[in-house]
Amino acid sequence: MNTIYAREDDLGADEYIDVVAKSGLNRPIGDRPRIERMLKQANLILTARQDGRLVGFARSLTDFCFCCYLSDLAVDSACQGQGIGKRLIEMTRTEAGGANTTTLLLSAPTAMTFYEGIRMPKADNCFLYRRQQ
């Protein structure tokens, strides 16, 4: 299947929610106003589409020259294993500033093997406050 990748600054909540639900990613998809705010405030959204249908996306916050937080990476479970997630990460790194920009993500426990499998470097110097809801 032919996959078209693009930068989309106006990804809609309906498509986002659909792919999150089909991917297994844990996001507050029952809180549409929160999802809409999440999408509006992201400044780098890359998508993967097959026959016009959204099958994956990477949503990030970045300054495009020093740091990038890849906040969401989701691929419809029916399309996983096609290299879509890996390609979206590579595109995120390029769009965010390439080798001059640190790209950081926090993995869901169920996705750890994916990131290890694509040999994404693992950090041991991260600190965080977890959200309460």
UniProtKB/TrEMBL annotation:
Signal peptide (UniProt feature, chain positions): none
Residue span(s) of domain N-acetyltransferase: 1-133
Coiled coil: none
Pfam families xref list: Acetyltransf_10
Protein name stated in the entry: GNAT family N-acetyltransferase
Organism the protein comes from: Reyranella aquatilis
